Structures
1.
Amino acid sequence: MANPQRKVFFISDSTGITTETFGHSLLSQFENIDFSIKALRYVNNHARAEAAVQKINQAAENTSARPLVFSTVIDPQLRRLVHESHALVFDLFETYIPILQKELNASPSHASGRTHGVIDDLDYSSRMDSVNFAMRNDDGGSTRQYDRADVILIGVSRSGKTPACLYMALHYGVYAANYPLTTDDSLRDDLPSPLKPYRHKLFGLTIDPERLHRIRSQRQPDSEYASLPQCRTEVRHAESLFQTFQIPYLDTTSMSVEEIVTSIISQRKLNGTA
């Protein structure tokens, strides 16, 4: 019998980046479990905490397995509310802060939203510039700044290029652009013209055609774009280009965005500002 879908909540009193990154990393180790994930951000007062707990408890009533909660809420009273929910709670600060407090012989500030506080202003500004770069150079919309790119991801639509670029920018300060290999490109056995001057910056992403078919069908069901034959044709052509032009590439089918990014950074020896 298949395992029931497991409800997961990421709760934070700020943006939730820390909670989601850590939680996704842990959950990715359980590939055969169907997780239904919901992020509850800016849970920074009593009313929002009660509303979050109500959602968790409602999920607990509607499923046979208790929800999993990953929390980085700092305020002690709000944390207590979260812990009283009908879920298994992983309190990331409760796990690590006492150990650090003892080792450092210092008291924590108990202030929320302090993750970026350990990053100097110049580094923070650089990362924000790299995020803006990734957004301006997403999906081949603009190719005029490719000379500034540290890496240019290429691959078929929905192979993971955009989230990888944004993650590299936000977490590592890498200037990452991406360019989609389209149906028209599959009719030619050559690189698209805008990419030719930057072959040394290219990195390919591929994906299993059946997985791609399922992803595209969620966005455009019963379309030629989402059809399995079309997915197979596009993936086959993309991989052929990677091999012909000796472009390094990854199969993203079963990889998390964190795994994709760290693999790219390692293979291309990218430093960014991290």
2.
Amino acid sequence: MTAAQPTGAAPAPVAPGPRTLAWRRARGHLGLMTGAGVLALILAMALLAPLVAPHDPYTGSLARRRIPPIWHAWLYDSPKAGWTYPLGTDRLGRDYLSRLIYGSRISLVIGVSAMLISGFIGSTLGLLAGYFGGKVDMIVNFFVTTRLSLPVVLVALAVVALTGSSLLVLVLVLGLLLWDRFAVVMRAATQQARSLDYVAAAEAIGCSTPYLLLREVLPNVLNPLIVVATIEMANAILLEAALSFLGLGVRPPQPSWGLMLAEAKEEIFFNTWMIALPGIALFVLVLSINLLGDGARDVTAPENRN
């Protein structure tokens, strides 16, 4: 017989669940919260661009070109600067703030799409190579070596120059060129998970190979891919900006940050803010993505789950 619980005794404390513990770790990670907050702000700005942008990013007027940003009114007493165009206008009289807001759409679409394509290709090849080994591993390693021998920027330049530049072409080219890091990391993680006890137990009870790959191995090797995904997403955004800067990316008059840099290169000594603003926007976006990836890796790492 068990002794009756004394009347008025406090109930036993309930241990917090895994989601509660993960949220507590996330709240305590400064880099993760900073990256997630900035990225969420940029994402909201991109989704709500028609409501947030003060002007049409495509409409310009030669009568109001090269209006300086608002801080020129405070620092240099510029009579042209004002809140009508808080970040000024470009050489065609288009509102710079509106073009920056709409440009975030292109950067996010290309970054996410290219990351998903390259992640699917590289993760699949790495998973197969790490699990089966042998000839499969040799074939995948040959593909990875071949891919690493191709310079990404030069191949992207050649393909875009031959096929013509468009948003779809950029996404496909970058997605098909950035999968090697996914394959290498997934292969190494799968080789480690392949020898663990829970995989051997699943094999012993007769689980099929697809079940082992998708239900036993894949969920337990996703943590190393978090940082790889964020790195490749940021890399795709920078490559799109580089291609647009060279005139082989997004075509005018679409408001791409790389294209804005290219259009402002002639103003670097006269209107420095024209080239500084899109550069700062790229820097903030890439930094927030990397902070989010590093923080998510730290929070979800097995050694930190306590």
